[in-house]
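This is your field. Pick holes in the following sequence-structure pair:
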Amino acid sequence: MKSLASLLQSSSLSLHNLLATHCRTIRCGCIADIYLSNRVLGNYLNCGEFGLAQKLFDEMRHRDSVSWNTMIAGYASRGNLVNAWGLFRCMRSLGFDVHGHSFSSILKGVAYAVRFDLGQQVHSLVIKTGLGCNLFVGSALVDMYAKCERVEDALEAFQEIPEPNSVSWSGLIAGFVKIGDIESAFWLLRLMEMEDVKLEDGTFAPILTLLDDPCFYDLLTQVHGKVLKLGLDYESTVRNAMITSYAECGSILDAKRVFDTAVGSRDLVTWNATLAAFFVHEQEEHALELFLDMQETGIGPDIYTYTSILSALSGKGRQMLGKSLHDLVIKKGLEHVTSVSNALMMMYLQTTNRTMEDAVRVFESLECKDLVSWNSILTGFSQKGLSQDTLKFFRHLISSDIEVDHYSFSAVLRSCSDLATLQLGQQVHALATKSGFESNEFVASSLIFMYSKCGVIMDARKSFEETSKDSTIAWNTMILGYAQHGSGQVALDLFAQMRNRNVKLDHTTFTAVLTACSHVGLVQQGIDLLNTMEPVFRISPRVEHYACAVDLLGRAGLLNKAKNLIESMPLKPDPMVWKTFLGACRACRDIELATQVANHLLEIEPEEHCTYVLLSDMYSQMKKWDEKAKVKKMMRERGVKKVPGWSWIEVRNKVHAFNAEDRSHVHCRDIYLMLGDLVKEIQWSDSDNGFDESLVLGSYQNA
């Protein structure tokens, strides 16, 4: 019997050995021993075999408090509050003693399920049994109230503990962290030190999650110093949280330094946290290198790893690598995992239009589509400008059993913006209001954007006023709306209000404000803003910010300064920067500089039709017909065709799309007949206006 007991005490007992040991206890008649039965019971629960544990528990002729508490703790630790609560009530009704361990276990389950109502009932029983001052029960009460975001109750339970330990303090601090109260969390940390209570990894890990903004960088370095002083930097929970905090505070170098010092003690979470850090800072190349290093160490990637790395494979030139990873996902048998398929869809959607079919194929092959699947495909279509597809898929979504959320509304509202379909946008607005999402910051910003694009800036402002004034997205969208409507000064006034209210600024904020400066002509203010982004606001300028600055200088006719800015950029100018500069050269009629820029653009993007069109139009304005002919010839030789512009009109809740010389509409003949009548009326009303009807009617006559 002693050998069986010692074997059952082994923490590394496998399920196979456990089953064999269980058989031996039955064969030798020792299963009736309550101590051995409890040990077998606990080992089954440790192996996750709840069915076998429950079967053994039901067959036990004699049970003691340990038997009941073992089962309650097992279910509670796995988040199965229903079974844990049922056993707890049954235990009490059968007259078994409910002591500290019983309460601690059931409170853990209550905290996991965030059932404040049940927690109050258990607390009443704790007081009734006189265990309110028990250290373990008190700590469990603090943890339960903290996880239910009832910090005042947690503080009262904490004050009832005669000598709180590190677990008690850490649970209370975690509660204030959960509600985002950074001042109270650090106040408690200082009190904890003053009381000479040992600071542990469970104390620092929650606090680090609060330090998620560049303004907390100095505070983070102080916390890091304290962690190093206490020798907690090798605790995985602290190390992993530190990597995430440094990344979110704007320092990828410090995040990487923490990762590098963890040689030999990195777990899967460490690798995933560092991957996420690179993604936050848009350093996809480093993320890919890290993923390859991870493969070499023998640490197997999990679902989170695959979904993260797939998000890095966006942009042109990554399709082959993405497809290779897709093959790896299939090899690992993860292609039917919804989250992985969702990441695959986003990877394909974020590359080029040619890969849309791949994304749709993944979507249609996914058996268990969740809301993320639908939102991914909706967002992809919306961002690609395939607005009619967005509307079509949105109709399928609202007719399904899946409940629409704010991301769904945001995507379809953006498509309404692109189509400039005010009436359809208003209908979606009504549906969002009915669904209770009108005040959501993403939906509100999409409404602001939609009304701005449809030319109804007052309705855009009304939507802005009805949303939370803490929403960075709403402020950014409203500022950009005013800038695009030519109300640059109003946009700059909003930016000043945004700063006075301490609303968090981001990259999009500066894009919007620089656009406003460009429209108003505040050259020096815009350049000063660009130059202060990193030193003052700790936000590194991106390519789009430099493109806005080039547009700002170009509109002011300062082509040389715009050129110098491009040449001095710390980032490689992308085609958008050069196209912006080309537009400025065209506006200033600098044909020589425009030709240089256009030639450079044609080298890096020979298939892009916009450059040819801009250059051709400029030669037309300058009456350089030979050069214009050369551009047209180059387009023919390279097989580049001008992409026709599209127009939309909304009639009786249906969107009709047309492009130049379009004859595909079902009412094509009637449309051109009406057009002909309108042209004749214009001629009759003003015979001297020089209007050439052949330009319009020629298309119809050739149809």
Observations:
- The longest helix spans residues 668-685.
- The first strand starts at residue 646 and ends at 651.
- Confidence is low (pLDDT under 50) at residues 693-703.
- The domain at 542-650 is CATH 1.25.40.10 (Serine Threonine Protein Phosphatase 5, Tetratricopeptide repeat).
